[in-house]
Each structure stands twice: as C-alpha cells, then as structure tokens.
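pls design
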C-alpha cells in the first residue's frame, strides 16, 4: 500500500499551550520558535501555539502573538490559539491566526472556577465571536473544545446529555468544529466510545463537525482512549510532545497524550499521520534538555521504535471524520 492510499489521521501538537501551562520553567521564545519549526519539519501540520489570556495570569504564554506570526511563515501549517473570551478572539482575528479554540466546560462547576461564566454564557460568547469574525471578513476558523466532557474534579460526573446539548448549542452559535476533551484524565475507553457515538448520532448531518479527541494521561489511559475514539471514527487527536501538561488537581500526574506515542501507535496501525517519528524523537530529546528537571511522559523514547514492520490494515470505522479545516 502506498502512503497516499492509507487512511489519514491528524495529531495536533498542543504542547506549546496545554503542555507548557503546568511547566514552571519559562521557555524562551527562541526555543518555542525552534520547537514550532522542528515540529513542522517533522510533518506536524497543526500546532496550537499559545493562548490569548492576560499575561499576568500566564507569563509562560506571553509570546503567543510572536509565535502566530512565525507559524504563518510556514506554508500549510494550521496555527491555532486558545481564546477563553471575546478579547482573546479579537486578538486572534487581528493577528490572522488560522484557527481559534474556544473552551466550553460541560461542567458548570469547572466553568465557574475556570472562566467565571456558566456554560451557556460561554455559548453566548461564541455567537458574539462568530459575529465579530464574520464582520471583520476574517478567515480564522472557530473550533470549540468541550472540556470536562468525561468528568470533572470539582463536580464529579458530567451528564452526557448536557455534553450533547452544549455541542449542539456551540454549533448553532457558529462554531465550525467541535471536539471532546478529557481535561482531567477521568475518561475510560468504554465511555469514550459511548459518548462519541452518542454525539455523532445526536448531531446527525452535523456529525462531521465533531472531529477531535483530547485526552490526558493522568491515569494512564490516554492511548486506550485514543484507540476507542479512533474505532468510532475520530481522526484528529490533540497531543503534547514528551507528554507534558500535568494536571494542577492531581500533583505528579502525567500530562497530555504524548505526541510521539500517539504517532507511533497510529502509524503502526496503518494510519498515515504525515509525521516522521525519528525527527519527532529528536525534537523530544531537545525539549527534554530545555525542560530539565520537569516531569516528562511518554514511552516510545525509552525503548525506541521496534525493528519489525507494521502489517496492519486499519479497520473501517462506523463513522468517517475527515472534515478539513477549510
Ligand atoms: Zn488539556
């Protein structure tokens, strides 16, 4: 089978945003620029480069504008930024970021603690952001990440019906793509499969807009959850190189799904990620040096890539999620 005939899967790098959030070492802008360039050279075509939040709250992400500008010099790279509010969205539009990711927490308690808004107030701000984007004639794509979709450290269970109601509301408010995020690492594979399937069914003709799985390895299930989502047709996954991105509510816990392990699994299973694993591992080594003393995750870097070749042919999924960004 030639590479082009293989089914595609996208691994979006979120290490520069979600990953660095919980890292104490402030990574200099020059190193972040190098990270973006090297990840791009390794074949990563989607990178979340930062977030437009008040600098005093998150000094680690203060250079987001510079990173967006750099990412825009790399042809074909989709650079996204997290925007928690209207002000952040205005910045993303102004700087012509390719995509902005608006977090909507399915847990009312998490939403109040995180953005001091109810989930429905966040939905209202999506509509506002969409109107502003359209009025500006901007092409910045609007994606919503449904955080705490699988459970919440504050309120515990999160209702699946509420998750689906909010997904619908986000799309109705003008989001162009939605994803489900296991923000605190509570999800298990059966739950992932069930919630994605339920959501695909509920969204009907809009089901192709539910495309992303965002899993944390807090309890060691990120790859298992990735596989469960893959099985029901999800083809876009967020991941952090070296698995950085611990959880403030679970000290010592590992972070996001590790990019290198996710790429390894997908490629071994016969999916084309477009990413060169050797180059990715070289970059991981570099990042491990920059983040000396910080807790890193991932497994493939320890033992290396197996000598045997993959033979798998991916199974047909019950749903096919291939909606391009534009
Ligand atoms: Zn996350």
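designed seq:
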């Amino acid at each position: 089978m030639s590479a082009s005939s293989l089914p595609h899967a996208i691994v979006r790098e979120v290490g520069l945003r979600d990953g660095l959030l919980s890292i104490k070492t402030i990574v200099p802008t020059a190193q972040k620029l190098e990270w973006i360039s090297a990840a791009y050279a390794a074949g990563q075509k989607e990178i979340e480069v930062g977030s437009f939040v008040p600098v005093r709250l998150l000094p680690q992400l203060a250079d987001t504008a510079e990173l967006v500008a750099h990412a825009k010099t790399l042809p074909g790279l989709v650079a996204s930024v997290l925007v928690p509010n209207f002000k952040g969205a205005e910045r993303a539009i102004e700087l012509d970021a390719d995509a902005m990711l608006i977090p909507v927490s399915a847990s009312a308690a998490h939403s109040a603690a995180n953005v001091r808004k109810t989930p429905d107030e966040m939905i209202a701000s999506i509509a506002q952001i969409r109107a502003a984007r359209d009025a500006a004639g901007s092409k910045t794509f609007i994606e919503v990440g449904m955080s705490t979709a699988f459970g919440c450290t504050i309120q515990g269970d999160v209702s699946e019906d509420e998750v689906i109601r909010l997904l619908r509301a986000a799309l109705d408010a003008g989001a162009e793509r939605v994803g489900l995020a296991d923000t605190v690492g509570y999800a298990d594979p059966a739950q992932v499969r069930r919630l994605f399937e339920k959501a695909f069914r509920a969204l009907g003709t809009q089901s192709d807009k539910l495309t992303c799985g965002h899993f944390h390895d807090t309890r060691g299930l990120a790859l298992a959850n990735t596989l469960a989502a893959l099985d029901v047709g999800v083809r876009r996954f967020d991941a952090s190189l070296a698995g950085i991105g611990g959880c403030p509510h679970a000290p010592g816990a590992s972070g996001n799904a590790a990019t290198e392990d996710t790429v390894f699994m997908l490629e071994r299973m016969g999916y084309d990620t477009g990413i060169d694993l050797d180059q990715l591992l070289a970059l991981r080594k570099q990042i491990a040096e920059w983040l000396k003393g910080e807790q890193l995750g991932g497994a493939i870097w320890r033992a290396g890539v197996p000598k045997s070749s993959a033979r798998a042919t991916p199974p047909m999924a019950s749903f096919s999620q291939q909606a391009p960004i534009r």
